[in-house]
Amino acid sequence: MNVTPYVTGAVSRSLPWEPYYNDPVYDMTDFEGRFDEDGNEIGDGIPDNPGRVVYEVPVRTGQKDNYNLGLGFSVTWSRPLDKTLQDQCKLAAQTQIELQQQITANKRLDFEIARLKNCGELMKSGISFHPKSPYYKICADVVVQNVTVVPQHRHSIPRPTSSPSPSQTSTLQSLDSDPAALLDVPLQTRSSFVSP
User: Fold this and answer.
1) Degrees to nearest 5, angle at CA 193 with 192 and 196
2) Phi-psi region of 175 (alpha: psi -120 to 50; beta: other; left: phi over 0)
3) Over the stretch 61-74, which tens digit does the pLDDT of each residue have?
4) What H or E segment, with its residue span, contains residue 71?
């Protein structure tokens, strides 16, 4: 269906513009040309002064402008006799759209899985972007779970600066000897120091 609105207009004007014209009044007097029985001159039916204008009468012409304006719309509706080709075309277009959407979804899934894998492996290795980096958000939603591998590391233990009190020394010796006695392990005595 095709709907077409339209506006039409027309203006007509007569040129030259003459609202009035002068209508001449001719001299129709007829006093000459014949004689009556007494010899007097009378008219003969022919104007004595043909073509002489006695006066002019102004006559309104009725001339005016004409304006015309038309508004409306036209509607055209057509229906094919065989809709099979149209239906097949619509079906083919819809199938192509769905195929493109599925290809796009597959590529998106491949990208997300690759991002997840690479970010996870880098996190397990202790490598990551700085939080202020614009690329930090690439791996911001990746979570690494069930990682039990602890990388090798060393801790520095400061040496004590003062000797323990006698009460602390006896407590430490009792703590060292009790588990060894329970496990039937030969007891080895050594001095222990605890920093305050």
Assistant:
1) 155
2) alpha
3) 888 888 999 999 89
4) strand 66-76
Segments of the chain scoring below 70 in pLDDT: 148-151, 162-196
Distance CA 61, CA 20 (A): 5
Q: Is the pTM of this model over 0.70?
A: no
Q: Check residue 195 and give its pLDDT.
A: 46
pLDDT score of 169: 55
- CB 128: neighbour CB atoms within 10 A? 16
Which tens digit of pLDDT belongs to each residue from 126-135? 899 999 999 9
Q: Residue-wise over 132-164: b if at least 16 C-beta within 10 A, else e?
A: eeeeeeebeeeeeeeeeeeeeeeeeeeeeeeeb
| Cα dihedral sign, 168-171-177-183 | negative
CA distance linking residue 180 with residue 177, whole number of Å: 5
- CA torsion, ordered 169, 171, 172, 174, to nearest 10 deg: 120
Q: Which residue has the tokens 């970010």?
A: 119
CA-to-CA separations, 41 to 27, 38, 95, 97, 186, in angstroms, rounded: 18, 9, 114, 112, 187
The C-alpha atoms of residue 165 and residue 23 are separated, in whole angstroms, by 148
